[in-house]
Design brief:
about 40% helix; 15 helices; 8 strands; binds 2-acetamido-2-deoxy-beta-D-glucopyranose; alpha/beta; globular; Rossmann fold; about 15% strand
């Protein structure tokens, strides 16, 4: 009879093999100066795994739902976790959201209020007296218009307030998939215009108001800056962390380079198509969008000069082949036409419009599908002699600056926040 008990060395061997397999599974090449590369690899692997499991569950669930009406009604009401969006939000919550632990050292009064009929969290420095007017930052969080909220950005926003000593108003705008475009923009505009219209009532110095945001929040910040200027208001500066600046050209080199790699395991083609479909009110979006087939030939000709990479990208980022495909998919061009308007693509405006912008603080990251539109924006502003502070994080990936706490903490995130607040302090 053989013994069922494995020896210590057998266990050790199994463990080592398991470990090597795990390393092989999660390995992806990253440049030498990438901060905390193994942590990044584990995050990517984890989120891909969860997405895979959820997609499998989705299929099983659809199968059962089709087979059984009772199951369908039960599952629909009780287990909406099986939906892609809930899975992504859960993933986001367990990786970032639940680690929003405030360091009690801050010198701020923090409270929630309604501004312009929208919820806002206020981070107010304690040193101002009742007669003082405060510099202000209206902050729009990122998350692809889909995830993120004022709670999951709490550490980011209180740190910005603590380090800039400006009052920060963090805006709880409506998100997709529940609310499509322009819900987020409307809510964010409502807050910004209320602050500019009634700055005194909020003890805010109207000459020292900044708009700030990252990713989708950066998109909102710049779009709203343009609206405010059109209405005669003068924001002092706009601070953009890897902002979304356009939905027109998805063939820019940074898209081609990083979309297939799936930054953080979630910024991939499938999720991008999902976001655009939900933004647009759940219309059909097909994958030829990635070849810009969602824009009409007319719009391609009209708008391409605003971001032509051959014209505006630094040499080392330039595409090897010029590839503006001159076809269009009429199933998409009508429903997605709004994507080429400045209300969601603030880069697609004339030099005259750019000329009116306030001081721009722009931060880009190397590992980011949005890298190139940031550089194109910077180059256009430079040629207009606009006041611009552009800092490129050479070894950061999209979304990294929110990883300030918890097991996924990237030490580099603190450097990114420090860089941002340093610039805001200097220019606001
Ligand atoms: C707030 O800012 C001060 C001064 O920069 C710093 O010493 C302190 O650690 C900060 N507190 C938090 C909680 O970030
Ligand atoms: C304020 O928001 C509520 C829902 O949050 C809505 O029912 C109401 O119509 C809004 N009022 C205005 C003036 O927009
Ligand atoms: C957004 O605002 C516009 C103009 O005020 C309004 O017509 C539209 O109904 C609003 N849409 C949403 C989704 O809030
Ligand atoms: C764009 O759409 C048209 C019409 O559906 C199709 O004929 C063409 O091949 C598509 N182009 C690309 C690059 O997918």
């Amino acid at each position: 009879m053989t013994t069922t008990k494995r020896s210590y060395s057998q266990n050790l061997a199994l463990l080592s093999i398991g470990f090597i397999l795990f390393i092989a599974l999660i390995y992806q090449p990253l440049p030498q100066d990438f901060p905390q590369p193994w942590k990044y690899r584990v995050i990517c692997f984890g989120s891909k795994l969860v997405t895979k499991i959820v997609c499998k569950l989705e299929n099983i669930y659809l199968f059962l739902a089709n087979a059984n009406v009772l199951f369908q009604s039960y599952v629909l009401e009780n287990l909406n976790l099986l939906k892609r969006i809930e899975a992504i939000r859960l993933l986001y919550y367990i990786s970032i959201g639940c680690f929003q632990i405030r360091n009690p050292q801050h010198q701020l009064k923090i409270y929630d209020m309604i501004v312009g009929n929208v919820s806002v969290r206020v981070y107010q420095p304690l040193e101002y007296g009742s007669q003082d007017l405060m510099p202000a930052i209206i902050h729009f969080h990122g998350g692809g218009f889909m995830i993120g909220c004022i709670d999951t950005y709490d550490v980011v926003t209180y740190t910005i307030a603590n380090q800039t000593r400006a009052i920060v108003l963090s805006v709880e705008y409506r998100r997709i998939p529940e609310h499509s475009f322009p819900s987020a923009l409307n809510d964010s505009m409502s807050v910004a215009f209320e602050i500019f219209h009634n700055a005194l009532r909020y003890k805010i110095d109207i000459n020292r108001i900044a708009l700030a945001g990252d990713s989708a929040g950066g998109n909102l910040a710049l779009v709203i800056t343009q609206h405010l200027i059109r209405d005669g208001f003068k924001p002092k500066l706009t601070c953009l962390m890897y902002p979304v600046l356009q939905f027109f050209d998805f063939t820019l080199p940074s898209y081609q380079q990083y979309l297939p790699r799936g930054i953080l395991g979630i910024i991939n083609q499938e999720n991008l198509v999902y976001v655009i479909s939900q933004l647009s009110g759940r219309v059909l979006v097909t994958h030829d969008m990635m070849q810009n087939n969602h824009t009409s030939i007319n719009n391609k000709q009209r708008l391409y000069p605003y971001l032509n990479p051959q014209e505006y990208l630094p040499k080392h980022y330039q595409p090897t082949v010029k590839s503006l495909d001159m076809t269009e998919n009429p199933l998409m061009t009508k429903t997605l036409e709004y994507l080429t308007t400045p209300d969601i693509s603030p880069l697609l405006v004339s030099d005259q419009e750019l000329q009116k912008l306030p001081i721009i603080l722009l931060f880009t990251a190397e590992f980011d599908i949005l890298r190139d539109e940031g550089f194109i924006f910077a180059e256009r502003l430079k040629r207009l002699n606009k006041q611009l502070y552009h800092y490129h994080f050479n070894s950061a990936f999209h979304g990294s600056h929110v990883l300030l706490n918890g097991p996924l903490k990237f030490d580099y995130a603190w450097i990114m926040i420090e860089k941002t607040t340093e610039a805001i302090r200097k220019y606001l």
